[in-house]
Amino acid sequence: MEKLDVVNAALAALRAGETCELAVVAGTAGSSPRGVGAWMVVFADGSQAGTIGGGKIELFALDEARELLAGGKSRLVRYTMGGENSDTGMICGGAICLCYLHLDATKAPLFQSVADVLAYRRIGDFVIDFEPFIASALESDATEYHGEESRRTIAGCPGLSLVEGGSKVTYTNAASEIPAAHIETLCPEGLTYIFGCGHVGAATARVLTAAGFAVVACDDRPGTLTPEWVPGVYDRRLVDYKNLGEQCPIGPRDLVVVATAGHKSDIDVVIQAMRAKPAYLGCLGSRRKMAFMRARLEQEGFTQDQIDELHLPIGVAIEAEDPEEIAISIAAEMIHLRRTKLVPRKR
347 Cβ partners below 8 Å, 6+ apart? Predict the structure, then answer.
């Protein structure tokens, strides 16, 4: 969970009475190293946590953040990354808008709330008030909106807030113009349940955890739920595959991977998960198993449209064979879902 790591690092500095500079990707156009919502925090000793994309753009951002940190200021700036007027020398062909926020100890309670939303997978909107930057822009007669001409610098920090449950409001991408506010939805995805932690399930848990999914490893065999076998996961739960309700209350923001030790337990889990209508549901299986599963789901009263939403066989078709390869194919499918539907990249 990269963002939670960044927030916790910032919190540690703020609680120690130190200041830090948080760089937030507030807008992109065309190709850019990271999408809207990437965070990087820079500290007084020059160190950093998180990344806004690496390469030259991050070197620019680090220098700018250190300058602003020393002066106690915040800034909104747009860089271009292609063409004759590129600000960075990069040739991606896009643009990226960065908002630098000067944080001090007064912001610790807010960022503790942000950490709680991220840690407990609640949904909420992190809001940056851009009005101070707009006022700064009105004082300038700049005609080009990039590089030096786009810098809008203010003392201190603009208004920040957290709206739990989501504000249901969207604003213009800051890469094209300055909107009234930047609103970033935190945790649009919930938990990722993996039912079955044998070789494939455990490998999938490791890959998805590394990719920032909040993995809940579930099995009816205690020996598959050790920290050594499924390290770093959000939670480990010993379950009854026939009755998941209390142990695993699957919700519409959750993602589900079914990889139990047998087809009977697979179908038990799939039926319960389909009734819960998660954001994603996939199951390991062959073509023969797919036919069996579809027939059983029809008997259970599911419509063809509902059955077609089940990812079976799960994963991207890359001729994967060993557990790690299969895990990567599953992660690829789920990352695609995340970046196209759950957290679509704004351009």
Answer: 28, 29, 30, 173
* Strand order through the sheet with 48-50: 48-50, 39-43, 20-29, 95-103, 73-80, 152-155
- d(CA 247, CA 261) in angstroms, rounded, equals 19
DSSP 156: S
Instruction: Identify the residue whose tokens are 């299986």.
Output: 285
Which DSSP letter does residue 341 get?
A: I
Per-residue model confidence as pLDDT tens digits over 32-65: 767 888 999 999 999 999 998 877 888 989 999 9
Torsion of CA 204, 206, 208, 209, to 10 degrees: 150
User: What is the Cα gyration radius of the chain?
Assistant: 23
Q: Quote the crossing angle between the two packed helices 199-210 and 323-337, to the nearest 10°.
A: 40
Tens of pLDDT, residue by residue over 8-28, are 999 999 999 999 999 999 988
The pLDDT-based confidence of 341 (bands split at 50, 70, 90) is confident
